[in-house]
C-alpha cells in the first residue's frame, strides 16, 4: 500500500506542477475548446483526448457507483470526470487511509466489500 500511496502522491504533484504553468500560459478557458478542436482534427492529439475522455468517464462512473449513486456520489462522479488525476489521486489517497489499506474496501466500499 505504501508504494501505491507514493505513486498516487507522485502523480498528483507531477500533474499539479505541470498544470500551473499551462494555466498561466494558456488560461483555463481555453481548455475545452482546445480539447475538442484537437479531437475534430482527427490526429493523434485528438485520439489521445478521446481515449482520455473514456478514462475520465470510467473514473466518474466508478466514483458514483462506489458511493451507490447517492447525491454525494453523483457530485463526486462529476468532479472525478472534470477533476482527472488531481481528484482521483486525492480521493484514492483518502480512501486508502479511510479503509486502513484494505484494497477491497477502498475500491468497492464497505457495503460491497463486506457482503
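^ Assign residues to that structure.
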Amino acid at each position: 500500500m505504501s508504494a501505491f500511496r507514493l505513486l498516487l502522491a507522485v502523480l498528483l504533484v507531477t500533474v499539479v506542477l505541470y498544470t500551473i504553468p499551462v494555466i498561466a500560459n494558456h488560461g483555463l478557458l481555453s481548455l475545452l475548446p482546445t480539447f475538442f478542436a484537437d479531437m475534430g482534427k482527427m490526429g493523434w492529439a485528438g485520439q489521445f483526448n478521446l481515449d482520455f475522455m473514456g478514462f475520465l468517464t470510467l473514473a466518474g462512473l466508478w466514483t458514483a457507483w462506489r458511493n451507490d449513486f447517492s447525491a454525494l456520489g453523483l457530485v463526486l462522479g462529476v468532479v472525478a470526470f472534470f477533476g482527472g488525476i488531481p481528484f482521483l489521486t486525492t480521493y484514492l489517497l483518502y480512501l486508502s487511509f479511510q479503509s486502513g489499506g484494505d484494497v477491497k474496501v477502498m475500491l468497492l466500499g464497505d457495503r460491497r466489500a463486506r457482503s
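Residues 2-114 form one domain.
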